[in-house]
Design goal:
This protein is α+β, with helices and mostly antiparallel strands. Helix content is 30%, strand content 27%. Bound molecules: N-oxalylglycine and zinc ion (2 copies).
């Protein structure tokens, strides 16, 4: 049933192979040290293993864990990473462990399962609680993947809020329809999540034709595909554009492409270009003045930022907001420009193009999608006016998890 025991190395290998998941386990679990330091538990026929040190670190007793702060309060001055269990017992719904220093811990089975190291439960936790897996798309499928949501529903129903936030996180884009025709309507949507990301363009910003502008977006000329504010280290996660007035004339269409789709395409078909796009640092920049405040923002990062698991963290792209200082080596310049042009061309090729109707809020992942706008004619009786606001992914994922708890979708 359960034992505190020394796992034989071949037993562990067998366990991992049986689970057909050897690749997914961290390498160190096969090392000599960790295999001596686990407790295995059989929960209703499901065999799970937990390292001693992890169990001790996550003791849920009042001395080790503060209930209302929901935080670990173990005194690490006395924490022993080599702690061993001296007694392990189990009843119908929990595991009890007495440690070699006499401390006693108790763990509920559901609590343990959710935190299990087995790849199946790790995936469940990742998908249900951490972040829903993203679905990448080509522009030709835009009308299927871009889900429509109703303004009133989002501000009044947790189910609708959950659906909107989840769709936005999965596809990186969504639309809110039937938004009241007012400059403050977007505030109610922001409130459902929490608060905006404030930037030097303000809490909210107005996109319309402005002469002597502080930003090329505030013109009526074409706005080439880009991500907003790549020159911020803490770049806004989600962009929301409320189309208060759409141009009656030609032009003004939006262009949207999934940077993750393009990145994967380049990785598969042009690996050398992918290396340049992920390795060569670019200096993103915005220098100027807005509402009397001067700014001089610089941030260095490649066009495609990837993490240690080869997952894309963030896409940065802007022609106007890329500075002229090239931080990389001179040998990289020519091949890098070719890779940049490939990324630009493919995003345009894979993009969806549509004219966003008045009353819609176009919501998109600003660190995944590239967006742009076709030029339009601006005149006294033909204007175009958008109200924009940013929200960070931290706030969106947080609200999404809170709503899931409220709706009993997760514990
Ligand atoms: C922007 C922008 C899109 C539009 O202001 O950065 O991308 O449709 N605007 O005007
Ligand atoms: Zn404890
Ligand atoms: Zn933009």
């Amino acid at each position: 049933m359960f034992t505190s025991r020394t796992f034989k190395i071949n037993k562990i290998c067998e366990y991992l192979l049986n689970a057909k998941v050897k690749r997914c386990y961290p390498k160190h679990i096969l090392s000599n040290r960790s295999v001596h330091d686990v407790i295995d538990v059989d929960i209703n026929g499901v065999k799970l293993i937990f390292p001693n040190v992890w169990l001790r670190d996550n003791c849920q007793c009042e001395q080790c864990f503060h209930v209302t702060a929901k935080s670990r309060i173990i005194d690490y001055n006395n924490f022993n990473v080599d702690t061993k269990p001296v007694k392990v017992t189990k009843n119908s719904n929990s595991l009890q462990v007495t440690w070699d220093d006499g401390h006693k811990s108790k763990y509920g089975f559901n609590w343990l399962k959710l935190r299990s190291f087995s790849p199946k439960y790790q995936k469940k936790y990742n998908d249900d609680i951490y972040r829903s897996p993203k679905i990448v798309w080509h522009g030709k499928d835009f009308y299927e993947i871009c889900k429509k949501h109703d303004y009133k529903d989002i501000v009044s129903s947790d189910e609708a809020l959950h659906k909107w936030l989840n769709d936005t996180s999965v596809y990186g884009v969504s639309v809110i329809e039937k938004t009241p025709n007012s400059e403050t309507a977007i505030d109610e949507i922001v409130k459902t999540v929490g608060f905006t990301k404030r930037t030097h363009y303000g809490e909210k910003f107005v996109v319309q034709n402005v002469t002597n502008t502080s930003n090329v977006a505030y013109l009526s000329s074409s706005l080439q595909i880009h991500t907003d504010l790549p020159y911020y280290e803490y770049c806004p996660g989600v962009n929301m554009l409320h189309f208060l007035v759409q141009t009656k004339g030609e032009g003004g269409e939006n262009i949207l492409s999934d940077g993750h789709y393009t990145a994967k395409y380049i990785k598969d078909n042009f690996p050398e270009d992918f290396k340049l796009l992920t390795n060569v640092q670019v200096e993103w920049s915005d220098v100027g003045e807005e509402a009397g405040n001067k700014f001089y923002k610089l941030y260095r990062a490649p066009i495609i930022e990837i993490d240690s698991n080869d997952e894309i963290n963030r896409i940065n792209f802007s022609i106007p907001q890329r500075g002229s200082h090239f931080p990389g080596s001179i040998e990289d310049v020519v091949p890098w420009y070719k890779a940049l042009k490939l990324f630009f061309n493919l995003n345009k090729k894979f993009a969806a193009k549509f004219k966003t109707p008045e009353g819609n809020i176009l919501v998109f992942d600003n660190i995944r999608l590239l967006h742009g706008r076709n030029k339009y004619e601006d005149s006294e009786n033909n204007v175009r006016k958008l109200i924009g606001a940013y929200i960070d992914w931290d706030e969106i994922y947080s609200r999404l998890r809170c709503v899931k708890v409220k709706l009993n979708l997760i514990d």
